[in-house]
Amino acid sequence: MRPSAIITGAGSYYGGPAANTRAKTMQPLVAQKELGEMLFYEPSPEPDVEKYVARPADRRAMGLQFQWGAAAAGKALEQAGYTSREERENVALFVASRAGERDHDVDAAAVEELPAYEDAGGLLNKLLMERLRPTLFLRQIPNLLAGNLAIIFGTKGPSRTFLGEEAAGACAIEAACYAVAQGRSNQVLVGASLNAGRESLLRWLYASGAGANGEVGPIWAESHPKIILGGASAFLHLEGEASAKARSAEGVARVTWLGAYCLDWHDGTVAHDTLRTIFEEAERENDGLAVITNACAAPRIDIEREFWSNSGIPGNLVINSASLFGSTLEVDAPLCVATATAWLRGCLEHEITRTAALAPVEPPSQAFPKACLVLIGGREKNVFACLVEVVK
Amino acid sequence: MTDRIFVIGSGLATSLGKNREETWRALVSGESGVSQISRFNTECCPVQIGASINWSKSKAAPEIALEIGERVLAEALADAQLNKDDASNARLFVAGAATETAWAAVLNARNSANIDIQSTFHRPEVVYALPQSLADFLGSQNPPVELNTACASGATAVIAAREAILDKRCDVAIVVAADASIYEESIIKFSLLSALSTRNENPKTACRPFSKTRDGFVMGEAAAAIIIASEAWILERGQTPTIELLGCGEATDDFHRTRSTPDGHAVVGSMRAAIADAGLKPEDITHINAHGTGTPENDKMESLAIGILFGERASTIPLTANKSQIGHTLTAAGLAESVISTMTLLHKVIPPTLNSTEPDNDLKVNLVRHAQSFDGCNVLCNSFGFGGQNVSLLFHRDEALA
Asked: Which residues are CB-neighbours of A148 under 8 A, at least 6 positions away?
């Protein structure tokens, strides 16, 4: 029996084509011609941080990444129907995160004022001691997103933070599905947040040659697509059927964990066989499927394009999340599950999905499928799969 | 068949030794791994001491973590008599740290024609390289899972690994933690939180857990690995391990980002949950491997919670704090101290807590000041972290199997 849970709340914020936003630009601190201007998306509309994080002290304790996460988490909890802090006591937190934002001004000062490292003596230490704020560290520790959520919303169930970019979000959903299915936690808040407008992150992407130098077209159209990182946050409230019934919470969809698969995307045969295994598993109990994938790098994009083109699934039902939101790394998995939920419920506009579809044809005349396969992979390795279904 | 889970292998590398046996001998001998930091210029730095890994081939922090992580994984595999084929189906759980700016690379990048562009600022490909590198080393058929719950990360990873076995996701789970965080910015950030001891003049006596004169923790570096497996799988292989992972507990504190609720209920909660999960009662606990950082706040709260849970017995249960010897190894601490807890059960010796010549009489704990023999069979190992993370693991020596 595959582990599954009912989605009774979802909250998300994102930018990019799905939100009709243009990319912002950032100049690297240490200018290098290979980098040029670096692009990223910010969520639009801006996350409702003040609504969901009422105390100014709590807002001050967080950088943008954690604030956006808190807003999405608050939205998911609100949809899940909680009305008091006490009701949320048993909620578990499974969060995908990374270190929070750095202090750009301190980094800039160090770059501008200090000599070469070997000549700096104690000057680097002196500058960091004098200019770093003690509170900055608490905005940076990865599990402090979960720590802040516990403080803001009063959750006291198990708190786990997962690292590892796209895989982190997927592993958090895997853990949440098992926790609910095995009865370890009746309610789990699972999600992630990313502020893409960070020098450290953008520099790494552009240094690898994958960063886009201008707005990008549909990801499916390229063999070596360029990426724009997308700032986003997404949280899901998962629970068992009995819990949802006891709380009179409406289930908006069901998520079932299919598996974590080890592969190297450069090995096309293994990748193809793995996709076949996942597809057959997802198809087993569903007459028709829609697919959301976060594929956005070579050679995975070619492998998936070929596979889904030959799968029998209409091309307009296979959409690419990077074409909608940019690449949102840790947020890919929870955001794709939230998007699948909205799609199955008819809440995604055709014009939005059209921009991200494998074959952007008109919507099919037949009924929309009742299940959506969500595929989350790393750029080089591994793939994770879950199935989102209409609650029967 | 019950769902019993046993420790079948472990590895440990610290400032005291390159492997588990070296570290264990030094621990029992009462040695300290704390010394002056020589890795970088500490001028203008309020803290100039640490329990650094000084014996590695690598000299920069992220690369040290990779090196010692692979080392302890190999040691644990050998200890468990597992070859890589045997281990390829295991799920791998890694307690990971987020690394930060490599200032040497950044400052030198400005005037260099040949920039190591990947080395400037934060390096995600190094951060996340540890789990994938370990998975590749194993030839793993499953993607690794990386967890971070600050200073409780190693212990949290053990809980996640145990759950994977109980859920029948795997028969064998491998947990690895590796933390090499002694570099400028990390030391300074902890200094700014007033968390570190500033006794630079005498490093070996700086960390004083549960002592009246404690003034903070000493940062340390370590890697640890534990391999756990289901009883059914172990019996099939004809192995007879004796150390059981009998119980796990965790509790989230929603009070503050760095401090515990004043009534200590979350710390009590994690210990109580581990004991209940093991099917035991508080009176069955015969030794506590404390989180024991040597900060005024941690030791006060841990002592308070132990007093609440164990009542009058609190002042009689032998308690030790390994951080007095190997420093606070941050994300690796929970796993390193778990390995030490299993060694305590195997060797029937409790390593000492150093530098406790001036006891804090307000803390009602029975601190082990010199290595002492141990005839109990249940060790409770505590790990706490910023963000309200409280985790307790209960290791048991099965005398019937010994």
From this structure: A58, A61, A62, A66, A70, B257, B387
